[in-house]
Amino acid sequence: MKLNINKLTKTAYMACVMLFTFIYLPTTSAQNTYKIGTGSQIKVIGTSNIHDWDMTAVNFAFDANFTVKGTDVQDVSALSFVLPVKNLKGKEDLLNSRAHKALKEEQFDKISFKLTDAVVVPQQNIIKATGNLTISGVTKKVLIQTTYTVGADESITCKGSKAIKMSEYNIKAPSFMMGALKVADEVTIDILLKLKK
Prior knowledge:
The chain is α+β, with helices and mostly antiparallel strands. It has a single domain (30-196), classed as Lipid/polyisoprenoid-binding, YceI-like (Lipocalin, Beta Barrel), CATH 2.40.128. It is 15% helix and 51% strand. The strands form 2 sheets. Strands 1-4-5-6-7-8-9-12 form an 8-stranded antiparallel barrel. It has a two-stranded antiparallel sheet with strand order 10-11. A hairpin with a 4-residue loop joins β6 and β7. It starts with a helix and ends with a strand. Mean pLDDT is 87; it is low at 16-27. Residues 1-30 form the signal peptide. This is YceI family protein.
């Protein structure tokens, strides 16, 4: 029996193409732009010599590019947020006015973060985001680590926190009651992001 080498080569080529189509393509992942969703918030938590305090913002701008495959985030190629200082609010008007003044809101009305590098650890559902955090006109490179979950609709929920010192951003910690209440220099930024495509 005489073998047709050209026919065998064509058959092998077609088999490879079909294998690639059925095995490789379904596992590919696409990069998508994500926006902020309902329920997201950024909270600043601090202490004083008398009691703890916090301020929360639920209105801020956010953009990011995530590559998602199944329930895993595989890559974060861009991420930024811009938070108007006036949107940070506590339970008391006096706290708000003193905090906004300390943040130099009239001169620097926004707090922002822009990603420079991201490392994703899918096995632990962790994103390590390094970027430039700007507060009161001062920019510092920081690392913010969050955990994440991916929903069935490819929505992403990220939770994390970052401790910073106000003095590093040239912020003088506000005082109250003629200095009787003194706010501690270190605050914690708690982040809850509910993101959708």
